[in-house]
Design goal:
257 residues, mainly beta, Pseudouridine synthase, 2 domains, two-stranded antiparallel ribbon, 13 strands, 10% helix, globular
Length: 257
C-alpha cells in the first residue's frame, strides 16, 4: 500500500530524508510551477530558508519513495562530491509484469524473450542484452548497462544506446561510460535494484529492455495483466550515504514492495 502524502523519515541539521508520494514532482520543472516535494519541504514552519535547501536527486513523477535534501551549502557540496564518487547508493523495489526465470536458463548467458519488441510501441530499443544468469545478490548482481538518448514525442522517453555512434551529441553517458543498473535480488516477479549513479527513467527503461517492464508504468510497455496494483510499482526503498559531519555510514529504509 502506498502513502499518498509526503512525510519526513528523518531530519538533521545538515540533511533530511523525505518520502515522495506517487504523482508528485520532486522539484519544479518550470520556475512558476508549484506543488512539488521541494515546495512542501521548504514551506514547513521548521524549514530553513528555501535558498539553502537542495534536492540531491529526483524521483520520476510516478515513482514513490525516499529522497535526500541537503539543508546548507556545506552539506550540498559534501553530498555532491559523494555522488560523483559513487558513494551515494539508492535501492529500489520493482514489481515487474514479466518474470526472469533464472532456474530454467540452460546456459550461463541468455537473451530474454524478444516477443515484446515486435510491438511498434517499443520502437527504438536495441536488441536486449545477454545477461549472466545467476541468482542475484548484493555481492554478485545482475548487470544491465547502456548509454541513453531521448526518444518519442516531446522527448519524454529515453532509450538505451549501446554504441557511441558518430557525433551524436544527444547520447548521455556516465562520466564517459555506461549507466549501470544492478539487480541485487529477485523474488518471483519482484526485483531489488541498486543504483550508484542514475539517469532519467533508467530503471524503468532498463527493465523494459530485458523484457520485464514495471507494472502500471504509464510510459514504458507492460503486459496485459498489469493493473493489480494502484500505482506504478517502483519504490525507492533505501538510501545509503555518509554523514557530512562525522563521515559515519548511514542507512535509511522503508518497506519494499
Amino acid at each position: 500500500m502506498t502513502n499518498n502524502e509526503p512525510y519526513i523519515l528523518d531530519e538533521k541539521d545538515d540533511f533530511a530524508v523525505v518520502f515522495k508520494p506517487p504523482r508528485m514532482h520532486s522539484a519544479p520543472l518550470a520556475k512558476k510551477e508549484g506543488g512539488t516535494l521541494h515546495d512542501w519541504f521548504t514551506a514547513r514552519k521548521e524549514a530553513v530558508q528555501s535558498s539553502n535547501v537542495n534536492l540531491m536527486h529526483r524521483l520520476d513523477f510516478d515513482t514513490h519513495g525516499l529522497v535526500l535534501f541537503a539543508k546548507n551549502a556545506e552539506s550540498f557540496k559534501f553530498f555532491k562530491e559523494l555522488q560523483d564518487k559513487g558513494g551515494f547508493v539508492k535501492e529500489y523495489s520493482a514489481i515487474c509484469g514479466s518474470v526472469l526465470n533464472l532456474s530454467s536458463v540452460p546456459d550461463k548467458n541468455f537473451v530474454p524473450s524478444t516477443v515484446v519488441y515486435n510491438d511498434s510501441s517499443v520502437l527504438g530499443f536495441p536488441p536486449p542484452p545477454a545477461i549472466d544468469a545467476h541468482a542475484p545478490s548484493p555481492e554478485n548482481p545482475l548487470i544491465i548497462e547502456s548509454f541513453f538518448r531521448p526518444f518519442g514525442p516531446g522527448r519524454k522517453l529515453v532509450r538505451p544506446v549501446i554504441e557511441e555512434g558518430k557525433k551524436n551529441r544527444e547520447i548521455a553517458k556516465d562520466n564517459g561510460g555506461f549507466y549501470r543498473t544492478e539487480i541485487i535480488g529477485k523474488n518471483k516477479n519482484t526485483f531489488t535494484v541498486r543504483l550508484k549513479r542514475g539517469f532519467r527513467h533508467q530503471i524503468r527503461c532498463h527493465l523494459c529492455w530485458i523484457g520485464c517492464p514495471i507494472m502500471n508504468d504509464p510510459l514504458y510497455p507492460q503486459p496485459p495483466e498489469a493493473g493489480s496494483v494502484p500505482d506504478m510499482a517502483l519504490r525507492a526503498c533505501a538510501l545509503f550515504f555518509a554523514d557530512p559531519r562525522t563521515g559515519k555510514k548511514l542507512e535509511y529504509r522503508i518497506e519494499p514492495l
